[in-house]
Amino acid sequence: MKVSSEKAVFTFIIFISLSIYTLANSLSAYSTKNSASNSAKERSFSFSALNDSASEKSQINYSLADSSQTGLAAKLNSDSLETASLYVQKSGMNKDNMPKWYEMVTNLPGDFARYYRSEFKKENIPYYLGVTVATVGLIIADDATWKASDKFYKQSSFNKNVSDFFTDYGDGRSQFAMAGLFAAYGLIDNNSRAFRTASQIVEAVLASGAVVQVLKHLTGRESPFLSAMPGGVWRFFPNQIEYHKHVAKYDAFPSGHVTTSLAAVVVIAENYPEHKWIKPAGYTFTALLGIGMANKGIHWYSDYPLAIALGYAFGKLVANPEIGINSSSSQAEENKKVSFNISPYMNYTGTGFTFSMHF
Asked: Which pLDDT belongs to residue 211?
């Protein structure tokens, strides 16, 4: 029985969409399992802490209902409690208060440090092996999937218009616009949750986007529509002047669109856990965004597993400021000493800036 190429492509698109949706849900389940096994990272806790004035006590309450763990009673040891108190106070991320407008930027160095502490651990090795296997498997199939996607894109104006729609509305502008809507509602209604969500969307997009840009500038992968060979050329550690002259020849891996889109979805879902439709709707939009970019030749499907992992991790981390906090009192001060430096440099290849972070 012969199957038309259009049906085959359609079936493949459905498969990829379901795969992205399943992977995002698997990440959620994996995160929930790890959180439940570590009291310092459990979802709901309440504690008291001293203000700068020793004579006055302030009650800080932090709680985040999770669809799978609503009402979880968490018990923190004294070291974790003190550390969490110091960090939440210092970062201004107390969920009961309106965040400062600048915290979306000033929290970034701490976000990178917390990402390192929470993700680069022995228990996460199987998870990142899975991401690696998925990436390698898709790289092997990249040339075939790109040809099928390109054919599908060019078959009809409907296919083209749908792909263009999701690609255009998946860039950073849409996430910042969404943050603007939440911020406007938060300011008009004096709603701290809405304003916090806006701040965290911007923070998650900036944090995850920065990591993606570093990886793009290191891997130098060619986009499909410019590919000079099956699977595209990888130009590791490319000349940065050439990179910025011909961006599409170097910036395919990983996908920034998928990373920032998923990060925003996770932030919103974490702040509004009572709305069960946010996750399936957001994951589906991100899947269609990825398919649209593959159809247009902007990305290979192998650009997505790492993008999904980064977007989900930064979304969870930004929305849950207790993640990645050192558990001992002696290390609490280190959390406050995260710093970064940007300085100019010049050599025979050109000029630019160097970025360093200490934590």
From this structure: 97
- Between CA 181 and CA 177 the distance in angstroms is 6
Q: Token pair of 245, please? A: 């002259």
pLDDT tens-digit readout, 79-123: 454 555 544 444 444 455 678 889 999 999 999 999 999 999 999
Q: What φ, ψ does residue 87 adopt, rounded to 5°?
A: -70, -45
- Measured CA to CA, the distance from residue 272 to residue 330 in angstroms comes to 34
- Summarised one tens digit per residue, pLDDT across range 130-189 is 999 999 999 999 999 999 999 999 999 999 999 999 998 877 889 999 999 999 999 999
Does residue 71 come out as left (phi exceeding 0), alpha (psi in the -120 to 50 range) or beta? left
- Structure tokens belonging to residue 175: 């996430």
Q: By the 8 A CB rule, do 159 and 13 touch? A: no
pTM for the structure as a whole: 0.70
Weakest mean pLDDT among 22-26, 46-50, 130-134, 328-332: 46-50
SS3 string of 47-88? EEEECCCCCCEEEEEEECCCCCCCCCCCCCCHHHHHHHHHHH
**Cα 257 from Cα 296, distance rounded (Å):** 13
**pLDDT > 50? residue 73:** no
Peptide bond before 254: cis, by omega within 30 degrees of 0? yes
Burial class of residue 304 in the structure, from the number of CB atoms within 10 Å of its CB (0-12 exposed, 13-18 middle, 19+ buried): buried
Q: Is 220 left (phi over 0), alpha (psi -120 to 50) or beta?
A: left
* Distances in whole angstroms, Cα of residue 251 to Cα of each of 113, 212, 243: 25, 9, 8
**Is the C-alpha dihedral spanning 105, 211, 310, 125 positive or negative?**
negative
